[in-house]
Amino acid sequence: MSPRQTTSDVELPRWAARLREAWRFFVVYGGRGSSKSWTIARDRLLACSEQPLQGLCVRETQESLADSVHRLLANQIEEMGLPGWTVQRERIFHANGSEITFAGIRTDPAKIKSAEGVDWCWVEEAETVSKASWDILIPTIRGRGAKKSDGTYSGAQIFISFNPREKTDPTYKRFIDDSPPDALVLKVNWRDNPWFPEVLRAEKDHLAKIDPDAYQHVWEGFPLMRSDSQVLRGKWVVERFETRPDWDGPYFGMDFGFSQDPTHAVEVWRHANDLYIRREARGSVASSKEVQDGNAEVTDIDRYPELLMRFSDIEKNALRCDGARPESISYLRKHGFPKATAARKWPGSIEDGVAWLRSHDRIVIHPDCPHIAEEARLWSHKVDRLTQDIRPEIVDKHNHGWDAVRYAVEPMISGKGLQRDAPAPVDQGGGW
């Protein structure tokens, strides 16, 4: 991603432009190496250089300034060569009247409660902030109204940056799971950092190879989860590979989206006792240009052909789909995919499909398939609320891509044999 230039000729990632929009909350979260803190520090210093503003930087606890972003801001003033700034032990101020101070929410609540006059507040390492601390901070940093006629925000703004820890953390629940309507939520990762260093790239790639769960948490910014509850625990990895002529495949499967559920199509291969997921296409609703650019989110039935044409030669192969939507299969057959067919369904087909997937030595997911890799991490068995025991039942979430995989190889699972050139009737019943 290319950087953008500010009026001061200071380089920032392109997403930083959104930090000047009119929102009460700016929530920036994600994994390591994304330059979240570095970017917010630069943006706030530039804003304070342009007009007199009062800023407050807080964390959950701050025993000393060494626990704050004081040093980060001081370093950025020097690195950007910003004139007019004075760095003191307890505060940083500008000749135009701007001032930035620092506090811990839990360790210095009196200072927080006296900060009603600030124009902006930056909450760094917000994953550690408790519900009690948020209940103190948010009402104190006043939000007097919303957008003004000139597009700016009339009240104090709160900038929140963090690397997710657990979904149950108060910050994640408050701003990600149940984001307020006056919040801009940006997930940024290493891909969004135009200066991502090669030494970190090597570290990232190594972790992706040896521990996919840890990689998703550290580098992709997903919350931690119980890996022992994963349906595919210990089986899947994210690795680059190239298909070869002696491999079996390709096999294509498609799960149709409905309401909030995404459409997901996949290309699957087999070799020896390994299963390979080479390509995917997924999404909800998008413009034709986004489809052409490869950034599509498509579920409308009349857009399915555009979605599927991302796969080479798919129209020449069997495409096994969710049999619960026969009208969608009929549409595909009439619009360039004559071998579209419904996957069979039988009692216990989900359990049989999972057992078949787990029978492989490895399930290798190409990096071009980030959505199905995310599902591999999140697709899980139920966990007993009281005993925390792993139950045999599977949670019906984060499984659309794996439904498509099972559809693609359904004859192998059912033992009916794979007849790739003979489409089945479309009215034979529902999918899994």
If you had to describe this structure to a student in words, what would you say it looks like?
By secondary structure, the protein is an alpha/beta fold. The protein has 2 domains: 189 residues, 3-Layer(aba) Sandwich (Rossmann fold), CATH 3.40.50.300; 190 residues, Nucleotidyltransferase, domain 5 (2-Layer Sandwich). It contains 14 helices and 19 strands. It has an 8-stranded mixed sheet. It has a 7-stranded mixed sheet with strand order 11-17-14-13-12-15-16, with helices on both faces. Helix 1 crosses helix 2 and helix 6 packs across helix 7. The longest helix is centred in the N-terminal third of the chain and has 15 residues.
- The radius of gyration is 25 Å
Number of helices: 14
Fold-level CATH name of the largest domain: Nucleotidyltransferase, domain 5
Give the overall shape. elongated
DSSP E strands, number: 19
Largest sheet entry: 8 strands, mixed
CATH class of the largest domain: Alpha Beta
The pLDDT mean sits at 84
Q: Indicate the low-confidence ranges by residue numbers.
A: 285-296, 417-432
Topology of helices and strands:
Blueprint: E1 4-5, E2 11-12, E3 25-29, H1 36-50, E4 54-59, H2 70-80, E5 85-87, E6 91-94, E7 99-104, H3 109-113, E8 120-123, H4 131-140, E9 157-162, H5 170-177, E10 183-187, H6 198-210, H7 212-218, E11 236-238, E12 248-255, E13 263-271, E14 274-283, H8 288-293, H9 304-308, E15 319-321, H10 326-334, E16 340-342, H11 349-358, E17 362-365, H12 370-378, E18 381-383, E19 390-394, H13 400-408, H14 410-414
Parallel strand pairs: 3-9, 3-10, 4-7, 4-8, 8-9, 11-17, 12-15, 14-17, 15-16
Antiparallel strand pairs: 1-2, 5-6, 6-7, 12-13, 13-14, 18-19
Helix pairs in contact: 1-2, 6-7
